[in-house]
Each structure stands twice: as C-alpha cells, then as structure tokens.
Amino acid sequence: MPVLRELIDVITMKSDRPMRRLVAYYAIVAVVVAILAYFFPGEIARISAKGLGDVPEGPTVLTDALSSSPTASVSFGPGSLFDVAVTTVLILIGALILMLPVTWVYMSARPSGGQHNQNVVQTLIILPLVVAGIVFIVQNSLALAFSLAGVVGAVRFRTTLRDSRDLVYIFLSIVVGFAAGVQSLAVGAVISIVFNFVLVVTWHYDYGRNMLMPTAAAQWSRPLEALASPTGDHQIPDRDLVLSLTPDKAAALADRFSRVSKRVGKKRKKPRFDSILTVTCDDVPDAQRRVEEVLARMTKRWSLDEIVTNTGKPCEIYYLTRLKKSIPRDVLLTAIHENANGVIATADLETSGEVDREKEKREEKKEKNDGVKV
Asked: Which of 95, 228, 236, 303 is 20 to 30 A away from residue 156, measured at CA?
C-alpha cells in the first residue's frame, strides 16, 4: 500500500517511530470514517455499534431458536439482498483496516534478533475476515451455530506456534472478527487501538527485562578459565571438546579467539581493555562525538566496538575501554552524561572480573595499612 505509506510519511515527516506512525494511521482512518459518516450515516451506524443492542437479555435467544419454525430463520442480515451485500463488504473492509496496524506491530515489536513468522502475519489478515463472515451468517441462529460446530469439529489443526505471544495476536484477530461479524466495529476498534499502543510501549521500553541478569564477565569468566586452564580441578580435557565440536565450529572458534586475542593484548601482559561502555541514543554521530571527548580525557585507551541501529528504539554504541586507576566508574559515567547534555539516553559501564579483583586487593591493602597506623 504505497499510497497509504506515503501519506503516513507526510504526516509523520518520514519518522520511523512506531508510535507516531500508529497515531498517523488512526488519524487517517478517523478522518475517513468521519467523512463517510457524514455522507452515509445509516451505513456507518449499522456496522459500528448495531450488534451491541441485538443480543437480548436472559435465555430468550435459546428459547426463540428452539420454539421458532424453520421458515422463520431463512432470511439473515438487515433488509434486502443489496443491503446484505453492502453490509458484508463494509464489515470485511472494517476488519481489514483494524488488523493492518496489528500486523505492523507484530512484525516490528520483536525481541532483538528475533524473526517474525510470515504465516502468522497472513493469518492475522485472513482470519478476522473468515470469523466475521461466520458470525454474520450465524448471528442468533442456534441451528446454524450447531452446524458450524460440527464442521469445525471435523477439521484438525496441527500448527504449532514458535512463540507463545503469537497466540495473543491470533486471539485479537478472532476478537476483531467477532466484532465485525456482530456489526460492532467500534468495540473492535477500541480493542485493536489499545492493544497496539500497549504492545509498542512495552516493546520500546523493554518491559519485563530481568534487571538481575548476570553480566558478561560473571557469565563467561569461570567457563573460559576452566577451558583455558592447563591444570587444576576444573580442567576440561581435549577429548571432551572433540565430542562437543565439529570441524566447522572449531574453525569458527579459532577465528573468533584469534580476533579476541589481538584486542586483549600480548601474552604475559595485562589486558588492553578491562571494561565495556554501553551508550544508548537517538543521534549517533553527535552522541559518539561527545562520548569520545570524555573517553579521550579520562581513560588510558578506548576503541569503538560496535554501533547497533534500531528502528523505533534508541540506538546502541559499544566501546572497549581501559580505565585509569584514579578515575572511578561513577565519575566517568557522570562526566559522560554532563558532556552529552541530554543527547544520550543511558550510559553504563561493565568492568571485567580482573578489575573487581584488583579493587578488592587495594581495599584490603588499605584496611591493613589503616590497621597498622592505629
């Protein structure tokens, strides 16, 4: 839909932020619906909230369906055949309009490095149309409902979703389809809009992330020490590695450790870098310039490791750094924030286990010296 995409680009000034593009899309839909409601008020009212007053209270639906004659339930839909056709087209178009942004959110709001399932995307578009058609035909007919149950019971579904969150999108598509089928698109619109914005917000702020996840140093330090240790209780024999690796994996690990070895430094010397600085920002060039000004003044050495660009989320910049003993971690981070002047969103410094051990030794030595003085 290039025309719709270009229109959204004009309204959002080609912004790639999902929140702005969602607001622009729903604004366009609201304007179109308002224009149609002005010229065709009856048709819009028929599909937007008609179903809310159709279901009687109490058991009258079941009683009427059992006691009514078969000829009384032959006709379905409002009015003539032309009215039925127009209503069907309108509810299907309405369901499609409500589900389009849901598919965009599904494709965008994925975990880092995650891939969306194309089959689920297509299902989110097609399933509401089918559900809306079924509900529109069945409506309050108990006989048609039992017929539908028999048909569905004869069909087996063996599709397994890789991500449990995909099932939530499927349920939403069913809800929108039901809302369209009972001609209550206003309810479906509210549910769809709230669903999309809640998902975008939780994805943008990475809600639910474990704040106590182990750092890279804590996670890999002991396994790598055991792997590199020639002697000791935790030594890993070569025979175990032979069973654990394939030639391709061994070659890939050799290449990777060769690259890491060049960055770590020469043998029998201290590592060239002892910490990783992570910066998140929207303006990468400006943030990079401001951060590197501080690193040049307050670190022994630093190296730009990687820049990760994200769509709709702050970008990430990673630096390998070697701290000066006279400059603590908090002092460096404070200086970075002050020099950034609001350009960066967050800054975090992760130190290696070697730095932590040296710090503990200095503190122990200081305590001993203080004890001797006393």
From this structure: 95
Q: Is residue 261 part of a domain?
A: no
- Alpha-carbon distance of 130 to 96, in angstroms, equals 11
CA gap 347, 314 in Å, rounded: 12
The band of 37, judged by pLDDT with boundaries at 50, 70 and 90, is: confident
Asked, for residue 159, whether it belongs to a domain, the answer is yes
What is the pTM for the complete model shown?
0.51
How far is it, in rounded angstroms, from Cα 157 to Cα 165? 18
Q: Locate 305 and state its tokens.
A: 């490791």
Distance CA 22, CA 34 (A): 18
CATH number at residue 344: 3.30.70.260
Amino acid sitting at position 38 = Y
Span between the terminal Cα atoms of the chain, in Å: 79
55: in domain: yes
Same domain for 327 and 193, yes or no, is: no
Cα torsion at 241, 246, 251, 256 (round to 10°)? -60
User: From the centroid of its chain, how far is CA 127?
Assistant: 22
Q: Which residue type occupies 52? A: L
Question: Contact, 273 vs 303, CB < 8 A?
Answer: yes
Domain end call among 163, 183, 204 = 204
Max mean pLDDT range (151-155, 193-197, 285-289)? 285-289
Coil, strand or helix at 197 = helix
Phi-psi domain of 56 (left: phi exceeds 0; alpha: psi -120 through 50; beta: other): beta
Q: Give the position of tokens 């032979």.
A: 242
Domain that holds residue 301: 270-373
**Residues 273-286: tens digit of each pLDDT:** 878 899 988 888 99
